[in-house]
Amino acid sequence: MSTFHLLNFGCRASQADGAALKKQLLDAGLREVQNAEQSRVAVLNTCTVTASADAEVRQMIRRIHRANPECRILVTGCYAQRAPDEIARLAGVDWVVGNSHKHTVAELLAATLTQEPGGDTARANPGGPPATSLPESHALVQIQEPNTSLSVPEAESAVEKAPANIRVGKISDEFHFAPVYPDDRTRPTLKVQDGCDARCSFCIIPEVRGSSRSLPPDTVIEQVRQLARTGVKEIVLSGINLGSYGRDLDRRINFLGLLERILGEISMARLRISSIEPMDVSPHLIRLVANEPRMAQHFHVPLQSGCDRILRQMNRRYWTRQYAERINSIRDQIPNCGIGADVMVGFPGESDKDHLASVRFLKSLPITYVHVFPYSARPGTPAAGMPGQVNGRVAHERGREIRDLIAEKRHAFHAAQVGRTLSALTLDETEDGAQVALTSNYLKVALPGSPITRNTLLDVQVGRADNNLLYGYPCDSASLELGELISINTRC
Q1: What pTM does this model have?
Q2: Which of 99, 195, 214, 413 would disulfide-bridge 210, Cβ 3.0–4.6 Å?
């Protein structure tokens, strides 16, 4: 039986794609192994949001090829859609399959690996004809981009190699869906929306993901129902632009209605919303999360900049005042809510004054964590050609300043949890031998001495906060001996 090793990069939606791809590979008869050194095929499901994301993929390809030259590498996902020719030049890469054809990966590998002479030990000519015949609507497009990859040090383009098989074309309006495979995850991600119709000036995602499209509500309901039957306690609903859910289906269908239908029809223990745009955080959505105990008390709302001038240059569709209104409304109605944001530093034309405005704005908000990242020029986006590109060292220093500010906020939020009782789900994770759980408001808590197993939803009493981790014990302690309880309380 042919083996595969799957590596996922990037956002929650990409992780959901990876879970679906894994299920397809298993259903096709391939067997998963835990590392590429033992695998016949390595599948890399990639991100291309930043230059560093691209570099991380190239580095992984080189590492796999050095460790196991016989391992055949297939690169798929957003980076594969954006720059297939660049990837195809890398030693060890046999296939580059864009998002347009990602749903054919399992079929491609199953057919190729079973048809090769010599079975599991032979290596077919990667530059040969496609191993499967695709429907006409998914006709293969061999992309030949300008030879810009010669300037990429990692590409090693001077090395002679057989050309990789490239499968990249126009992304269709179809939502290619495969059921989530929960495997060892306690919190599977269900992607209910893909693509984006917004045109933020820095973002390449509409080009590599296509237009916004939604999974039909009946399919979502059935998938959630099936996951609930397997014993899953929490599902994360994700999308590229989650708040746009349903707009391509029917004007009467929207994301809030989908949530209400799931909660009304299925006994799901907990639903969590992944990243959602500020203008889609409506008063009705906030009220639903505030009043429904099965909704995780957690919002992640991308900000990008706390300066109105830069938001306009980014083509973001809100002002800082509107963003603040929504974040403060969340905190007013859900006082202990976990609230996260994405912030970009070093956008073209961002001055010291603009950065200071962002810092002051962030300081005024009840945010509990932030993902900070420097601007990265993406070929073909409007921002890549804008004047005033910011020096990388300056962007790095601005990022450090914001991280220091948010570290203080996060420390204060952790300290405020001490003595509280929080709903939490145990994960496939330990800390110094202690079971780790994730709280409804998106904090990790270690449970030293607790015999609780993974995928258990329970109330946890928080005893102390230490760095980025809480320590506590289950409130339902009937299963613990008195000595164990005393020990746990002492450590907390």
Answers
A1: 0.86
A2: 195
Residue 11 clears pLDDT 80, i.e. is over it? yes
Give me the count of residues in the chain.
492
Measure the CA–CA gap between 347 and 455, rounded to whole angstroms: 41
Q: Comparing 138-147, 181-190, 343-352, 411-420, which segment has the lowest mean pLDDT?
A: 138-147
pLDDT digits 0-9 by tens, 112-156: 887 654 444 333 334 333 333 333 333 344 433 333 333 444 444
Rounded to 5°, the CA angle 101-104-108 comes to 120
Contact 462, 418 (CB under 8 A): yes
For the domain made up of 3-167, the CATH class stated in words is alpha beta
Statement: residue 434 has pLDDT above 70 = yes
Residue 410's identity, in one-letter code, is: R
Phi/psi for 18 (5° steps) reads -65, -40
Domain boundaries, the chain: 3-167, 189-416, 418-491
Q: Which of 399, 203, 159 is nearest to 316 (CA)?
A: 203
Q: Which CATH number describes the domain made up of 418-491? A: 2.40.50.140
Q: What pLDDT is attached to residue 175?
A: 82
Distance CA 64, CA 62 (A): 6
d(CA 100, CA 143): 13
Q: What's the rounded Cα separation, in Å, for the pair 426 and 437?
A: 4
Residue appearing with tokens 């293969």: 140
| C-beta of residue 21 within 8 angstroms of C-beta of residue 180 | no
Beta bridge partners of 304: 343
Burial class (CB in 10 A: 0-12, 13-18, 19+), 389: middle
- Model confidence band, residue 162 (pLDDT cutoffs 50, 70, 90): confident
Cβ contact 462:415 at 8 Å: no
Q: Return the H-helix or E-strand segment holding 298.
A: strand 298-300
d(CA 357, CA 135): 53
* Buried b / exposed e along 405-424 (16+ C-beta atoms within 10 A): bbeebbeebbeebeeeebbb
Q: Please determine, for residue 264, whether its predicted confidence score (pLDDT) is greater than 90.
A: yes
Query: Which pLDDT score, from 0 to 100, does residue 315 have?
Result: 97
Sort strands 298-300 and 72-77 into parallel, antiparallel or unpaired.
Answer: unpaired
Cβ pair 6, 22 in contact under 8 A:
yes
Residue burial 41-75, b: 16+ Cβ < 10 Å; e: rest: bbbbbbbbbbeebbebbbebbeebbeebeebbbbb
**Cα distances (Å, whole numbers) of residue 371 to 14, 185, 227, 343, 416:** 17, 23, 29, 6, 21
Where is 451: in which H helix or E strand? none
- The pLDDT mean for the chain works out to 87
- What's the token pair of residue 380? 């073909």
Distance CA 436, CA 445 (A): 6
To which residue do tokens 């080189």 refer? 62
